[in-house]
UniProtKB/TrEMBL annotation:
GO molecular function, one term: 3-oxoacyl-[acyl-carrier-protein] synthase activity
Pfam families on file: ACP_syn_III, ACP_syn_III_C
The name this protein goes by in its record: Beta-ketoacyl-[acyl-carrier-protein] synthase III
Top-rank taxon, per record: Bacteria
Comment block on domains: The last Arg residue of the ACP-binding site is essential for the weak association between ACP/AcpP and FabH.
Sequence segments annotated as region (ACP-binding): 254-258
Self-association and partners: Homodimer.
NCBIfam families: fabH, PRK09352.1
Amino acid sequence: MTNTVRSVICGVGSYLPANVVTNEELAKTVDTSDEWIQQRVGIKERHIAAEGEYTSDLATAAARAALANAGLAIEDIDLIIVATTTPDYTFPSAATLVQMKLGMHHGFAFDIQAVCSGFVYAVATADSYIKSGMARRVLVIGAETFSRLLDWTDRTTCVLFGDGAGAVVMERVELAPGEPERGVLTSALRSDGRHWDKLYVDGGPSTTGTTGHVHMQGPEVFRHAVGKITDVVYTTLEQTGYTVGDLDWFVPHQANKRIIEGAGAKLGLPPEKVIMTVDIHANTSAASVPLALSVAVADGRIKQGDLVMLEAMGGGFTWGASLIRW
């Protein structure tokens, strides 16, 4: 019998900008209230990047934290993948800027753009590079300065989002027959471009030549979210022979408390198995899953041997899930 190659997460890190904006502060500049925001989406506060603080800065700080947690140096990394919708520049990629800031002069780096699903897409991509032998260790980062895409006079969108970054180090491990299972077991990725206008930014290099602002058909996004989330979760479980009851932790994209609770209820997951940080981070797009993951690892909830489901859905629509034995 041959050994099984797995991509194991060996380090986790995060970074949040120092500036915290509460619902009460937003209510001073836009027609909203703490009660209104909490009732509809469950958000209490969000972090906003400072002037001159860019996505690559957030990503670099999270990467350094993940490397320290793994006990590794940048020389140990072969590939950097940054999932982001808000790169510093149209080009070069945020990943190459992170590579530079970390002092990495070897290997390769690139961005993934799948909006809120970006980190899950990046995990699946890193897993493929590791299993193909093209990389041994991969730094996977979700980082956003989403505040820069917002119209701060639009209360339907500006209250929902925040900035931040989370990162993991994934490394190739060969498991001998009979060894305990570890690493990424499987991933399921989906997209459907027919829904592009339900959640999008009204600008870009090829259309307006400007950055643009976020626009969202909230009820439509909500209507699609729960079904699409459960679809990919069940797909990964079916591929591995596990059931919802086998899951130790569910780490969903932190977009909306009601969506998270709805998906958990439809899956039959008890609330105590669902990691929720939307109240303190808001929706940080591609950074939300690794930020939630980092919180749950740091506080001791997620530990070695646990079966963990990552899940996200974002504009496009894109959605996906990864099942990981920690």
